[in-house]
Amino acid sequence: MRAILAALAMLCWVGAAQAESIVLASTTSVENSGLLARILPVFTAQTGIDVKVVAQGTGQALATAARGDADLVLVHDPEAEAGFIAAGHGILRREIAWNDFLLVGPKSDPAGIGGSKDAVAALKAVAAARAPFVSRGDNSGTDALEKRLWKLAGIDPAGQDWYRDIGGGMGAALNVAAGLDAVTLTDRGTWLAFANRRNLVELVRGDARLLNRYDVIQINPEKHPSVKVEPARRLAEWLAGPVGQAAIGAYVVAGEQLFHPDADAPHP
Amino acid sequence: MESFLPTVGLSLAVSLGATALAAALGIPLAAVLAMVPFPGRRAVVVAVNALLGLPPVVVGLVLYLLLSHAGPLGRLGLLFTPGAMVVAQAILATPIVAALAHRALEARWVEFGRTLQSCGASRLQALPHLLALSRRTLTTAVLAGFGRTVSEVGAVLIVGGNIAGYTRVMTTTIVLETSKGNLELALALGCVLIGISVTVSATVLALGEGKR
């Protein structure tokens, strides 16, 4: 019993002993792909600021921050971000990285979309072939883009028997897609780092509408007085600055660069 | 996997801490319910037993709303800390310890209560004897509470946030690795978790047997 209490006391002490620490609510892809685990120690070494990453989908990350429970958010849904800022929760959005989304699916490619550069036409083909499709359905940035693409295709897939809304994270969606031989929309970071692909291959890439932009947004201290403004600002500036940008660009998995620094983004 | 050992350590610290808290609350509650008649006692017993099926995600969500900066206990700064995880799991484990301990203590009190009282012992004086008589079942009650806490994932994920090196425990690591598609690693971690759980239970039981 005493040992347990000592261990608990130590946990509290370790937490308190950090000179400064902030909570970063982030989308799952930057965490699950290993990017943050690689670059944040560099920031901590430079500044002494410890960063606690709570990886959630974009929708949940913004909701966490809207309750005042995060000091900074790192997300990837421009529309939801605009709403977050318009509601007065966020100030100062900075673009820090980009990559792209892709449609992945089974090698057998029942919808015949492999090699296409038109994501909307590909979704139309998926619907026409009634090929299994896995949707995140979790209000994340990827989910929001998928819903926009269906809208552009003029199709409402909800409730169709080939459309599986799994209500889970990117990894969960890829696991289900791999199991069902289904098509799904994924961000490149999670896809490249994902280890259970089975039959899944890249089918559609290179559509301008598949650009995936990652932003950090500082939290409005007037709305959320408990937020640690100064260390959060330093992290946001570091990520957007030369050292952070170089660290983002240098992150490579299996020879492929997962995230591109914002500096070379193809702005439409 | 350089972060592996601290994760095991945190899992143990959080679940043992929560179990200790649950025992400290649940056993006295069970004793009162077994030994002290009061109006509504039956209803409390039913309530405690009903809470055996408390859903972890709901406990996590309610605790999250309470501990959030926008919530009434936000000032404590407990959200996304190991402390919040201990509280969440203690809430889940307390009804288990209390309900099982109550069963044992009630039966023993019916059996020996009158004898103990006829020897002139007050209820408080009788309590240590009752606890000693029920020692083995109480051990099982506490182990059941530990089993609940060490295997729990829904509540700690919500209130802990699964922060690497800070609130990431075995169960949340297994969820994370599964979502990364690292199924073999997730399974291996699952085996380690089962091993830890078995070791703790076996150790406690062995200590109990040794004392007989």
From TrEMBL, chain A:
SUPFAM superfamilies: Periplasmic binding protein-like II. InterPro entries: ABC-Tungstate_binding (IPR052738), PBP_domain (IPR024370). Residues 1-19 form the signal peptide. It comes from the Bacteria. Residues 16-240 form the PBP domain. Keywords: Signal. Transmembrane segments: none annotated. This is Substrate-binding domain-containing protein. It comes from Limobrevibacterium gyesilva. The lineage of its organism: Bacteria, Pseudomonadati, Pseudomonadota, Alphaproteobacteria, Acetobacterales.
Automatic annotation (TrEMBL), chain B:
This is ABC transporter permease. Signal peptide: none annotated. The lineage of its organism: Bacteria, Pseudomonadati, Pseudomonadota, Alphaproteobacteria, Acetobacterales. Its main location: membrane. GO terms for cellular component: plasma membrane. It comes from the Bacteria. GO terms for biological process: transmembrane transport. It comes from Limobrevibacterium gyesilva. Residues 8-204 form the ABC transmembrane type-1 domain. Keywords: Membrane, Transmembrane, Transmembrane helix, Transport. It is a multi-pass membrane protein. Belongs to the binding-protein-dependent transport system permease family.
